[in-house]
Every structure is written in C-alpha cells, then in structure tokens.
Amino acid sequence: MIDLTTPLGIRAAKRLNEEHIAWLTTVTEKGMPQPNPVWFYWGGEEILIYSQPSAHKVGNIARNANVSLNFQANSEDGDVVVLTGRALVEKNPPPHDPKYIQKYHEKILGFGLTPETFAKSYSVLIRMSPKSLRGF
User: Residue 108, CB half-sphere, CA atoms under 13 Å: how many?
Assistant: First the structure.
C-alpha cells in the first residue's frame, strides 16, 4: 500500500479522488509498454477499472500483472503522479461499483449508453493494487 500522508501521497490521493482519466500502462506479449487512457475509481486501497473483454490491456495483464497508472502533467509540466503495482482481471465480477457508475454517469449517458448497457459492454473488472508512488 502506498503512503498517502506524505506531500506526494496527499497530491496522489487528491488526483485519485478528483481526476476522471488516467493512463494505465500494461506490457504487451513482446515486452513493449502499452499505455491506454482509462476511467477509474479509487476505493481507498485499490483502483477499479472496467474494460471490454476483448481489450488488449486485459490480455496483457493476464500475461504480466505489472502495471502503472499515471495522470496527465499540468500545463507547467508538473504535478506528475505515477503509481506502479499489480493488476488482477476479473472476467465475472460482481455488479459495477455504484460509486464508479455515479462518477461517470454523465459521461456514460453522453456516449448514448445507460449504466446497464455500459456494464454489459465493459464487463471485465481490472483491480490495480498500487505498491509504489513516484512523482514531482
């Protein structure tokens, strides 16, 4: 578990709680980093990411659970936050976390979906457990 009481940890916690998009980087079968923008929900100990079953990131994590999650730097190239850890893919997860759905409700509707149709399409849950934190 990362320490969210340090100055960097406090910044990371703020971004985990307020941001809507982060970059999840997985590793391809050829060993190449593969970053993808994702929606996520921080539950206090793990990061929840829902995905379509056929997404490359799902297969990448099945082969190599080492991942990173980072946020866009601000316009002055600062406020860099990078979390590294391990991810687990759940292909038959429990229903979507209501707090995740609440966070993205307007965006889901904006894509012409309902929470129910979103849940059917994005039916795989990726749970990321952050182990380290770096940034500046």
Answer: 18
Q: What is the pLDDT of residues 45-56, one digit of tens each?
A: 999 999 999 999
* Predicted structure pTM score: 0.94
Residue 72 placed within a domain: yes
Tens digit of each residue's pLDDT (9 = 90 or more) over 79-109 = 899 999 999 999 889 999 999 999 999 999 9
Domain with 11 in it: what CATH number? 2.30.110.10
DSSP per residue, 50-61: EE-TT-HHHHHH
83 in any annotated domain: yes
- For residue 35, give its domain range: 7-95+124-135
Total domains present in the chain = 1
- DSSP secondary-structure letter at 96? P
> Phi/psi class of residue 65: alpha, beta or left (left: φ > 0; alpha: ψ in -120 to 50)?
alpha
